[in-house]
Amino acid sequence: MCTLESDFLYDHATPLDHDGTLSRALASLSILNAEEGFAVAVVAAPTRIEIKQAVQLKVQSIVAQFDYDFPMMLIGPDELVFWRRRLAASGMSEYDQFFSLEGYSNIRNMCLLAAALTGADVAILFDDDQIYEDPDYLKKATEFIGQEHENRSVSGIAGYYVNQDDSYLLPPAELEWQRKWGNREAMNEAFGIIGQGPRLKPTPFVFGGNMVIHRSLFEKIPFDPTVPRGEDIDYLMNARFFGHEFLLDNELWIRHLPPPKCSPPWFQIRQDIIRFARERAKLATQHNNWVHRITSEDFDPYPGCFLRDDFHDRVMDTSLEMASEYMEAGMEQDAAECMVNIAISKAEAHLKGDPFGDFLTFQKSWEEFMRVLPNIGIWSAVDGSD
């Protein structure tokens, strides 16, 4: 894998000389029954700035293959240029930070922005490595959202993934470093609620490609750009800070067919180190008078077990074992990156400042942006009415 420091690395980026998974995902939309209309937004994010125009054209060519009875909008680098100009013309350049395609969280925020722009009451997040196979998916997704259910206000619904083998569990760990990391075991333990009743129940996890978010939530809570990976579960945490609880719907499933990952295991661990450190820091710096205080135990068994004080020890054990396995394979540079992960974990364990307060500042600005968005007129730059 050849990368630059400027690259944004994703689990399964689409090469420009391949069609990738987007066509398959968009084709699956035809199976959906929808009594009410819906719009689809396709977010095109380049992995580096040098190829942004090529990415825009590539995704445009794929989207153009589909002629549906519902609106389909593309949000790519070109659209962001238009939108930034509209912001500047409206004297609102302070909200420019929300127009970004850099990293998972910013891309998710563009999805929420798309829902707001279309006037939707509900945002349904969907990834390109998935396909719809349940014709009643939309009916199930919107059945409870925005209503009261057993004395709970339903602002967030979590669906789940069904793998190619029809299982919703992850395969067991095969390598010793995977067993020391322990995420598969913890996640499968958490996924146990999928096979249990009732249909809706509180959940400590969500899947980014099967999230249903009501306007009352997405107009208030953004994804946190300081979290490089696992932005979906971090969003659940952010929502909990404000009293919003996601409920798992064990009938809301989608087929998950991911291609091989682009990034090496040590890099994925590195992103998790930063992610869990930031989340631990947000938990630790909650203001004393905060109404909706939460703890790591609220997210057991996963990701709660990665939010404990022994997290650095877990990183140490995992990284040393991974480095050993790399050395045995003659991959010395990868082994060295594992040792860098230990240093990063040690540094991240002592984050200074006020991470919780920093997110509150970002959240307040997002909420303000959502209120003024209808007055900026950026939608016309997308739908061609300008």
In words, what does this structure look like?
It is globular and about 55 Å long. The longest helix is centred in the C-terminal third of the chain and has 20 residues. Helix 2 links the parallel strand 1 and strand 2. The chain is an alpha+beta fold and 386 residues long. It has a domain of 266 residues: Spore Coat Polysaccharide Biosynthesis Protein SpsA, Chain A (Alpha-Beta Complex). Helix 10 runs antiparallel to helix 11 and helix 10 crosses helix 13. The protein starts with 21 loop residues before the first helix and ends with a helix. It has 14 helices and 10 strands. The N terminus and C terminus are likely disordered. Helix content is 41%, strand content 11%.
Key structural traits:
single chain, about 375 residues, alpha+beta, Spore Coat Polysaccharide Biosynthesis Protein SpsA, Chain A, six-stranded mixed sheet, two-stranded parallel sheet, 14 helices, 10 strands, about 40% helix, disordered N terminus, disordered C terminus
Helix content: 40-55%
* CATH class category of the domain at 22-262 and 359-383: Alpha Beta
Low-confidence stretches: 1-6, 381-386
- The rounded distance between the terminal residues' Cα atoms is 42 Å
Q: What is the overall shape? A: globular
In CATH terms, what is the architecture of the domain at 22-262 and 359-383? Alpha-Beta Complex
Average predicted confidence as pLDDT: 92
SS content category: alpha+beta
CATH topology name of the domain at 22-262 and 359-383, in short, is Spore Coat Polysaccharide Biosynthesis Protein SpsA, Chain A
